[in-house]
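note to self — DONT lose this again. spent like an hour looking for the file last time. sequence + predicted structure for the chain T wanted, 328 res
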Amino acid sequence: MSATDTVPPDTREPRRARRDGGKPPAAPRTTWRRALRRDWQLYTLALLPLAFFLIFRYVPMIGNVIAFRKFEPGGSIFGEEWVGLRYVRMFLDDPTFWTVFTNTLVLGGLTLLFCFPLPIVLALLLNEIRTRKLKRFLQSVSYLPHFLSIVIVAGIVMQMTAVDGPINQLLKVVGEEPVPFLQKPEWFRTIYVTSEMWQTVGWGTILYLAALTTIDDQLYEAARIDGAGRWRQIWHVTLPGIRPTIVTLMILNIGTFMAVGFEKVLLLYNPLTYPTADVITTYLYRMGVESSSLSYAAAIGLFEALIGIVLITSANVISRRTVGTSLW
């Protein structure tokens, strides 16, 4: 009989476990080359999107150099001579710029305040509907405004707020005088934010409804056993379950905080409403396209982009430190 056979099986196993530390064998490390050879079909699907972003997003960034150079139509695309921070000082000393900057902050803040939480509320309400046909009908109705062109939406807003439009007709019925809403600066922000809510809230529920489907039903069952009603279940189960989605979309919305809807503002505003309606993007359009001050407009656009970077970075850091969820 060999020495190995004299050792009981239950004593040989602990020795083997102690010899390898009781840890499972490490998986072979996958390099990027091996992953590329294995999944090259999937990676080829990303070529067109990458080419799109490279050509239409990153390459045009080279043109930002004209913010520091004097650009003249017909000359070099990179400007004729270096002027340093001349155009930066010009817009910082321009009172009109600070007016449009303030308007941008106010409109962006109102849009974020009203248009960001409403899709969450609507998604929670739709999630509580148990009739499948009714739920689909309400979803379809809420999605429809998203598919309308900005031009059509602006046309609807103009017709609704016209002097002889439905709103003023109702005012006449109650004995009030007609109000030219789109000629009153104090009404522009209300009209813009209301139309933005009507157009975007329904479509914004899609991601939240998808996130709601990932919540385990056993959590609701445990909450019901503990005596939680519907409101308690929403507060302690539903909202924590979609919190990563909420935080991610909030960071993205803050990153585009300064890019208030250019097309809608351009279609709805007029010189009478400039004091409250003129934002950075429309001001850039007038300075760069209508006045051909491309270097001046580039300097303002670069300033706006830097503010956006600071906002999205700050929001990401705050989110990571407070709720533990971030984009990177």
